[in-house]
Specification:
alpha+beta; 6 helices; about 35% helix; disordered N terminus
Length: about 200
Amino acid sequence: MINHIDRPAWRRRARALAGGMALLFLLAMPAGAANTVPSATMQEILIKTSILTLNDAIVTGNFAVLHTKLAKPAREEFGPDYIKQVFASFAEQKIDMSAISAVPPVATDAAQIDDRGALLLRGRFDVGSSRLVYELHFLPSEGEWKPIKLHVTINPVDETGAGATRRAPDPTAVPGRAPAVSGEPAQAPGPYVLERHAGLSR
């Protein structure tokens, strides 16, 4: 009997499987890692995986996969339909954040673990004429760092390369919780532009 094997296809599947196993190995949390800030490489994986999973949900309208990727406390508090409502403005404006996959994140604050044991990652991606600013919080959950907060703002970048939008503090905001959805312009003095902003926070 002669077995005909599509060798190029087999190699592609093998590479994909190896890549998936490598990612799973990277995301798995070694013993004691919950008290240690992950490496820069691991941080980039967490940031991009979280934002791109959110992007897939926004583009497809299916938030079930994103829901399964949240830390257990967030899954128990927020259902897929609620998350879809939170990010409805992004879906309505057809926001696509997939371009961040090709550029590195720029940290705006040092990564830290707070008194809840949550990993805090804040930074931005500059892609073309847009800037995506993120604040992501992760908790150890089921052996991995998983999101409990996804807060994303997208705004234009001015001629100097600085974000053009300025946002005044929200006097009604609850400390430690991101606003659910906002499409209002910043109230800071001087000219402003409309920013696109949404967040899920436990």
